[in-house]
Amino acid sequence: MSQPQRPDQGAVKRRAVFAGATTVGALAAVASLLPTGPSTAPVAEAQPKELPQRGGGYALTDHVKQYYQTTRV
Fold this sequence. Notes:
about 70 residues, mainly alpha, elongated
């Protein structure tokens, strides 16, 4: 028959897996904070929309229509 494992052996392997996962997570967090360099794409300035003549402000846009379609039963 096989010999029983010592309780310490399983715990050490499990700790190594968790330590490795923590290290990978920390490296990913640091990599996301590093600067990537100058942006080559020009940024278009946002043009302000003309205000409606009679108040309001609600506009039935495609996005709103899509929302209304998703709420129908």
